[in-house]
Amino acid sequence: MEENFKMLAKTLFGFEELLARELRELGAGDIELGTRSVSFTGDTGFMYKANLCCRTAIKILKPLKFFVVKDEHALYAAVKSIDWSKYMRVNDTFAVNATISGEQFTHSLFVAQKAKDAVVDQFRENTGERPSVDLKFPSLSIDIHIRENRCTISLDSSGVSLHQRGYRLATNIAPINEVLAAGCLMLAGWKGHSDFLDPMCGSGTMLIEAAMIACNIPPNLNRRQFGFENWHDWDPDLFDTIEAAALKKIREFHFTISGYDKAPSAVEKANENVKNAELDEFITIKQADFFTTEKERERHLHMVFNPPYGERLEIDMEPFYKNIGDTLKQNYKDTEAWFITSNLESLKHVGLRTSRKIKLYNGSLESRLVKYDIYAGSKKAKFQKED
Questions:
Q1: Does residue 387 lie in a domain region?
Q2: What is the CATH number of the domain that holds 307?
Q3: What is the mean pLDDT of residues 337-347?
Q4: Which of 74, 110, 228, 259 is most buried (CB neighbours < 10 A)?
């Protein structure tokens, strides 16, 4: 039986506990939370499963070497001390990604270049030939992380970032990152136990992620490739077994998932992405201005959305956010409404009291995921009834 090894899953700020919970439920061991990361242990099959099934992971890394690095010469020597012939051939391509923080090194491209030189020089000295660099589709992705003077060299088992699920071929001007959408839904407590609405659905990302959570569909089922598929020890039969086991856990969904957007082009793109994800039997999208709509059914509604921020889509912020509050209050009784915004000033204009505020980042923009509880009757009447 193969021994477990240490791995590191990268994520977005604020999603560390969500990712730890996902990994725990999948069967990971030795889980430890970091900053935008979670470390854990598992075997090769679990590495495949984590890439396939984690909704809030961006990368799954397999560390090869930890060491203290004093300068560029020590970094070069440490990278060169690894026997790279175990992981790639001279005719393979590779890429190096570096993340740095602290005063020791200040330029990530310089660090990546020194590491690349060490790999190339090792092959040249041993074989007389050198492997080529391919930044887009490398056979092997090497990850270097330096914090102060502590360095970790890892293999990147994911390849292209795991937020690129493979279903989104058409996008609008400001699409939400798929991992950010999934994390917002999970923080909002969405599990598929009610009707769901995204009233400003754009290219449909929130709807697709909501449907995959509701049905327990592996989020990266539609990806064309993972980084580990180029590794020397790639085991396609093992991956097929892992995938088949995950597919057996898909569950039925008995409610509705709906989306609105007032732009016909957005509705067209969203429908295209839903079709690519093979989720059109669960998701209905129509052209509508949220501010002229009302709740379609008496039963409880879960709403999560990503309204325009005014960053890339120009809107008149004050009346726009006031309209959100007015529409929710007047037309959406018995609704749990969540949305994410980086325009923190705009929240003052919603005119409703938030029951939750969670700090997140949308790209580099500091944001808040906020919750508004819209009660079926007045809030006072609700509590009197409960008493």
A1: no
A2: 3.40.50.150
A3: 92
A4: 259
